[in-house]
Amino acid sequence: MSSDTLVQAPAAPSMRQSLVIVGGGPRATGLIERIAANAPELYAGSGLDIHLVDPHPPGAGRIWRAAQSPLLWMNSHAEDVTMFTDETVRMDGPVRPGPTLHEWAGVDGRLFADRQLQGGYLRWVHERAVAALPDEIRVHHHPRRALRVSGPREGRQQVWLEGRPRPLLADLVVLALGHLDAELDDQQRELAAYADEHGLVHLPPDFTADSDLSALRPGEPVLVRGFGLAFVDLMVLLTEGRGGRYDGDTYLPSGQEPVLYVGSRRGVPYHSKIGYDWTGERPPLPRFLGLAEIDELLARSDGFDFRRDVWPLVEKELGFAHYHRLFTAHPERTAMAWADFEEKYAAVSGTVEREALVSSAVPDPGDRLDLATLDRPLDGVRYASHEEFQDGLRRYVEDDLSRGHDASHSPDLAVFLGLLSVYGQLVRLGDIGSWWHGFFSYLASGPPGPRLRQLLALSRAGVVRFVGADMAVAAEDGVFRASSPTVPGFSVEARALVEARLPEPTLRRALDPLLRELHAEGAGETADGLLRVDRADGRVLDRAGRPHPRRFALGPHTDARTPGAFTRPRTGGPAFRQNDATARAALVFLRDLGADAVG
Q: Which intervals of the chain are annotated as region Disordered (predicted)?
């Protein structure tokens, strides 16, 4: 679409208000859906124009756009993806149910859909949300980039767009920017400069579908730092994307593949998605980390420390979910009645006491929850040779796949539900550092099982080679060189290095000019560089902690970031809760503003 367009156009009343949403992806769609749901109760203005500003089509946005490889999948089953609220979402607005991805598409619920199909679902949800708006509310799409927002705190805002001489006037502005590009940090700049000087290839953190991979030449070694979902995309595009194919568990190369030497801090891939359904009683969550505990943390006059004050509650909550499932679904593997264990588990206060209780009640160490080992499985592990490590890590991945598809290990699925519950609570604390988000993604947001089977096939074919934990990269002797303490004495050199991860969403390094302007003007930021927002409704805070009356922000660039703009059904959906709170605050502000104007 080459010009600004009107999506919905009923008759125009005389005095119309304006809401500008910067970003047109699923977060913006979720906000529009909540505006439609809450408007009958809260808005009776003379008319409202919603302006969506995004160079990509509304609904799918950049990440889920149609113009990307059909080889790229979602990392969730189709039945576990919804854009619609249900009664588990704690919000003041009405529930407006709708179909999951698999119900909408008519596909197997256990399918890992490709991103193009998900993009179609998101476009449909966007059109449905727009159609549900009252007649006096119009939606316009401006396929441009927003450059900056200006205007007084108490007056109309001006949103300046690329290639448009006059700004959009806005009574309110919502930033729903999604994942953003960032300038290189100091280390990345040094590596990029070294690559330029020595004729090497350095691909910095990026959304993999947007990366130019043409410089990664067939047969040559490529160092890859990062073992999460960005790596999985890279692996797919450089193998099947270059003409290779799978024959069962065997990979048949095309001859166009480079050799990927992959490592990371943990040195292992993210855990496989669980491949069986839940049956029976669910753990009653939250139990040890709920509203009361979060309120207590927020009320502390001296603040709180994540490791000291929050993590012990997280450990206890995840342990409760795990053992509730073990005792209720697999009682033959326990040595105590659940009621007795539950009472004692609630009473213990420290890690040592809890471990002693678990040891007495759960005979098999394999049935006990060990979060430290789950987080860093290669800590202290050493292999005598690079080849021995290849065999060892393949066994690790095979064991992970086997466990993730065996319902006798269903406490793992209970821990997954616990992680979702914990995330929904921790959102209220604001910025708690990046470690928790990485830990959550590693355990709860890993790749589909079939992707890890492909990884095994690629490893056996010699297309993927494992480097190890705490992978270090040095730029020396005209090449990049990687090593890891997992295999002492081993190193590999290459002329190409790929940083397989998304850019960090920080205010100071964001390439997005609008966020940089906000930072320069005094918007509040956390120690990790995230935009500070009011936890109640998403209003942008300044450095003194004052909420801006006319500016809101939602998404991963804020300190109220959530696991995603869509979620698994019936899990409370913290993004849905935030969307509802922001929509209601915006509608009330606009309603009162209109009343003041009439008065």
A: 542-577
Question: Do the beta carbons of residue 557 and residue 531 sit within 8 Å?
Answer: yes
pLDDT score, position 192: 96
**Rounded to an integer, what distance in angstroms lies between the CA atom of residue 498 and that of residue 300?**
43
Hey, how many other C-beta atoms are within 10 angstroms of the C-beta on 22?
26
Rg of the chain, C-alpha, whole Å: 25
Residue pointed to by tokens 């809760």: 577
Q: 3-state DSSP call for residue 466?
A: strand
Higher-scoring residue by pLDDT: 191, 185: 191
Q: Which backbone phi and psi does 388 adopt, to 5 degrees?
A: -60, -40
DSSP notation for 425-455? HHGGG----HHHHHHHHHHHS---HHHHHHH
pTM recorded for the entire structure: 0.92
Give ∠ CA 106-111-113 in degrees, rounded to 5. Answer: 80
- pLDDT digit string, tens, across residues 293-330: 999 999 999 999 999 999 999 999 999 999 999 999 99
Domains of the chain: 5-181+505-598 (3.50.50.60), 186-270+447-499 (3.50.50.60), 291-374+401-444 (no CATH)
> How far apart (Å, rounded) are the C-alpha atoms in residues 29 and 130?
9
Which residue carries 């550092």 as its tokens? 433
Instruction: Give 594's contacts (C-beta < 8 A, 6+ positions apart).
Output: 15, 17, 45, 46
Phi then psi for residue 473, to 5 deg, are: -120, 125
Q: How far apart are CA 231 and CA 474, in angstroms?
A: 20
Number of H helices, E strands in the chain: 16, 20
